[in-house]
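Hi everyone, sorry if this is the wrong subforum. Our group has a chain we'd like a structural model of before ordering constructs, and none of us has done structure prediction before. Sequence below.
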Amino acid sequence: MEKASSKKYEIDMCNGPLLGKIMIFYVPLMLSGILQLLFNAADIVVVGRFAGNQALAAVGSTGSLTNLLVNIFIGLSVGANVLVARYYGAKQDIQLKEMVQTAIATALAGGIILIFLGFFLARPALGWMGTPDDVISHSVLYMRIYFAGMPFMMVYNFGSAVLRAVGDTKRPLYYLLIAGVVNAASILIQQNGITVSFDDRQPLYVWADEFKIEEVITNFLSNAIHYALYDKKIDIFYTVKEDCVRVSVYNTGDPIPEADLDKVWIKFYKVDKARTREYGGSGIGLSIVKAIMDSLNRQCGVCNRDNGVEFWIELDTKNEEIPKESIA
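Answer:
Right subforum, don't worry. Here is the predicted structure as tokens:
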């Protein structure tokens, strides 16, 4: 099943009409590029709004230097893309496996090298570029924080190159979307003074579509952020049952009227007519959750608890056949 799930993302460019396949390949690639640009724009917007003009100037002054260093390794990832595509097309599985391992090892090594370059060369390099004295300290700090995450960025770039070599441009886009949501949620959580706790007692394996469930939890988290009141706490936890696990997102706040508990899944349904937004933020988030769980033939629900509201979904932990429509 794992092999079949992987194959659905691959595109065979060697057989059949090309136009449709090229569009399927190109559109996620284009959207990924746009999202990466939006990440940079979001940095500038957040810094400019919350940290002032001097901090904004500091971020802007590092652009050329960070691009220079990062693009060296992105160029290497393009080389890995070419070799992976060659071995994949020739069905040389042993060479393909070795190339993928080499690409990931290069990504990790490159990320570590960039950490040291960013830490030790930030100040002299920015000085050579003529960065003003009143912002250089902020610029150095920003660069060191930025380059501390380079191993993860390099793994993403090399991993994306490997996936794109076999025609898979969808999963890199999914990973960027997840990162974007987490980034936006982190900003909202910090801005609103919310405390988030996560139950990570032990690894737990379930039968589900990873990306669909990620979207479900994201919608639950977004809903909780919008309506966390009083203690401003959000708890993400799970409860193991006989043959399934219940994953819950709880937030402190006002309860939902009992008469409306089964109606919050309706698109644009207003729990409180006096509110400017529907319960669930945009009015469609919870309806998306319901549609996804119905497609997976799994249960979802909501209940009032002491001083808050809990949204939950249930996922199977037993080894059973997943309906075809749930992995399409």
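For your construct planning: The longest helix spans residues 93-128. Residues 1-6, 273-282, 320-328 have pLDDT under 50 and may be disordered.
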